């Protein structure tokens, strides 16, 4: 869906995505998301709820709603046990 | 990427002045895709710009994080709390109702539940600053909280506590005091051992602070070490003597008892031409006071012209022995001893010293007797500190009895405790505070909500002040109180399911 949106309007700053099985973690001062294959993206430094995201994950993969493109995606919310928690 | 900068320049100057041409595109694109310029410069800008963008995107690859090693939290032993409880907690956290946070945490702990993970970072952040809530917070954060603590050094309290010896040796003054305080509350003997390990190298100010901390959990076990200390500084010696004199079996207190036995006795005589027996307290003010008592902190000279030096010394001695001494020495009940002292003016002046002793040695029986049978003078001078030293249940009862007499001081004292008041006391307090709308504002009610029972929710209207100009204030304040009481009600309700 994200690539289709970018094909129609490649000049968009960011696209919304829902990704399953990604795990958040912290390396140095940066928060990152990693998928099951070991591919990852940065979470922008402006994202303030890194520890909340971490607490919700407990180190387990999450289904996550984020917006961004290239190597930067900002989480907007996650599904944990069929409950959606958004980051205000 | 140079071409992207060209496109940005084109966009800023406008396609009329600087049109984007196929020639501006890198060869890598034009060799693969057949494109040509058209007369429509705007159409060309969008078309070619889109092509370059896709070209740019195609070179973007995700980060390679295969080598990153991630850990996971252990499964929780306790279940998570009800969603209703989480909703209340989120409100408490966002509106900073810290008086209610302790209640929430206590209820969660009692229900053997965990806080929802989304609330844990905020709770752990609070536990950094509010050490009194730390153990409750760590308990309700469960395994997930432990795992987060291992990842965030600020929340890794177990590592900090495990290395108490290092913290004691290298920590800042405040950190060392906190460490000693918390250890003394849990393991008094271990705290004494820790202090002994570094006593000789401590400065005078540190020694005074540490001795004050030893007041908690003070017992005979501390006596040998305390009495064996040889301190040169006056400040440290005063603090040391004060501490030693809090232990009933210490040498100074034993010495004071012996002197009081000699100086204060019951005298039985006849009155009304021998028809009535009269019992009074007889005080021998002219006994010889040994020098030792003055070295232990008893002052020699009275600064009050109404009180002689000997009386002043006796007052200090009476304030320094456990009041139960009088039961043994005079073979009378506390009530009788108090009444005997109050019988005559010359002995009544010693009763405030009895009150000081009751508070100092936390003697509940004597405290109650003094409040029950003390005269106006004693109630004037020591009522609040006497009631303050009582256990919660008795404190409530006595505060209710005297609330009209000393409302402000009693309310100040009562709100320093966490215990919830009974309905009658809460009504009495609100009857007073609602009339004093300028002194008791929203901040007061936000803090006092821990003490006020939720049953007051239905009573708030009845406290409306009679003075017209105060009514708007009270409406405002009772609205605030109603809000926090409703939250309190929701906490209790959500954990009672």
Description of the molecule:
The complex is a heterodimer of chains A (88) and B (497). By secondary structure, chain A is α+β, with helices and mostly antiparallel strands. Chain A has two helices and six strands; from the N terminus they run αβββαβββ. Chain A has a six-stranded antiparallel β-sheet with strand order 3-2-1-4-5-6. Chain A is globular and about 35 Å long. The mean pLDDT of chain A is 91. Chain B has 497 residues and is mainly alpha-helical. Chain B has a two-stranded antiparallel sheet. In chain B, helix 4 (83-95) runs antiparallel to helix 28 (468-496), helix 5 packs parallel to helix 28 (468-496) and helix 12 runs parallel beside helix 14 (234-244). The mean pLDDT of chain B is 91. Chain A binds chain B through residues 6-7, 10-11, 23, 25-27, 32, 34, 37-42, 51-52, 54-56, 58-60, 70-71, 80, 85, and chain B through 49-50, 53-54, 57, 60, 62-68, 70-73, 117-118, 120-122, 144, 147-148, 151-152. Strand 3 of chain A pairs antiparallel with strand 1 of chain B, so a sheet runs across the interface.
């Amino acid at each position: 869906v994200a690539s289709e949106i970018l094909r129609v309007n490649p000049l968009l700053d960011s696209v919304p995505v829902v990704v399953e099985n990604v795990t958040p973690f912290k390396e140095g001062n940066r928060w990152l998301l990693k998928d099951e294959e070991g591919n990852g993206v940065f979470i922008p430094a402006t994202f303030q709820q890194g520890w909340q995201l971490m607490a919700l994950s407990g180190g387990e993969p999450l289904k996550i709603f984020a917006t961004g493109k290239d190597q930067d995606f900002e989480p907007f919310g996650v599904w944990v046990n069929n409950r959606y928690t958004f980051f205000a | 990427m140079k071409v992207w900068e060209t496109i940005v320049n084109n966009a800023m100057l406008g396609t009329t002045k600087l049109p984007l041409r196929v020639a501006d595109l890198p060869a890598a694109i034009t060799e693969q895709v057949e494109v040509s310029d058209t007369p429509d410069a705007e159409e060309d800008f969008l078309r070619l710009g889109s092509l370059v963008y896709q070209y740019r995107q195609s070179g973007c690859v995700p980060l390679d994080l295969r080598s990153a090693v991630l850990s996971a939290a252990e499964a929780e032993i306790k279940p998570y709390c009800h969603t209703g409880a989480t909703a209340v907690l989120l409100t408490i956290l966002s509106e900073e109702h810290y008086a209610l946070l302790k209640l929430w945490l206590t209820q969660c702990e009692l229900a053997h539940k965990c806080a929802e993970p989304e609330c844990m970072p905020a709770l752990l952040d609070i536990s950094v600053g509010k050490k009194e809530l730390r153990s409750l917070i760590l308990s309700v954060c469960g395994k997930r909280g432990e795992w987060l603590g291992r990842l965030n050094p600020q929340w890794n309290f177990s590592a900090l506590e495990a290395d108490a010896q290092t913290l004691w040796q290298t920590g800042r003054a405040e950190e060392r005091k906190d460490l000693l305080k918390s250890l003394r509350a849990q393991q008094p003997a271990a705290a004494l051992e820790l202090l002994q390990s570094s006593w000789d190298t401590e400065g005078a100010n540190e020694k005074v602070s540490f001795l004050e901390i030893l007041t908690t959990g003070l017992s005979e076990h501390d006596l040998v070490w305390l009495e064996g200390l040889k301190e040169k500084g006056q400040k440290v010696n005063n603090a040391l003597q004060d501490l030693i004199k809090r232990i009933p079996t210490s040498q100074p207190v034993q010495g004071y008892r012996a002197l009081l036995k000699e100086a204060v006795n019951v005298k039985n005589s006849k009155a009304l031409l021998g028809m009535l027996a009269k019992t009074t307290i007889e005080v021998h003010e002219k006994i010889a006071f040994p020098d030792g008592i003055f070295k232990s902190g008893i002052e020699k000279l009275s600064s009050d012209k109404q009180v002689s030096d000997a009386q002043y010394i006796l007052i200090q001695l009476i304030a320094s022995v456990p009041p139960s001494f009088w039961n043994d020495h005079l073979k009378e009940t506390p009530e009788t001893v108090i009444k005997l002292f109050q019988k005559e003016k010359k002995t009544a002046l010693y009763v405030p010293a009895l009150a000081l002793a009751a508070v100092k040695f936390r003697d509940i029986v004597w405290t109650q007797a003094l409040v029950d049978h003390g005269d106006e003078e004693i109630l004037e001078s020591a009522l609040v500190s006497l009631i303050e030293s009582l256990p919660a249940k008795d404190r409530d009862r006595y505060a209710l009895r005297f609330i009209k007499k000393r409302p402000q001081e009693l309310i100040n004292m009562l709100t320093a405790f966490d215990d919830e008041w009974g309905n009658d006391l809460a009504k009495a307090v609100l009857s007073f505070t609602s009339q004093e709308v300028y002194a008791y504002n929203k901040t007061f009610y936000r803090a006092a909500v821990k003490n006020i029972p939720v049953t007051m929710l239905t009573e708030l209207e009845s406290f409306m002040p009679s003075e017209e100009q105060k009514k708007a204030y009270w409406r405002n304040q009772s609205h605030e109180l109603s809000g926090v009481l409703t939250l309190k009600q929701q906490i209790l309700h959500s954990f009672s399911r």
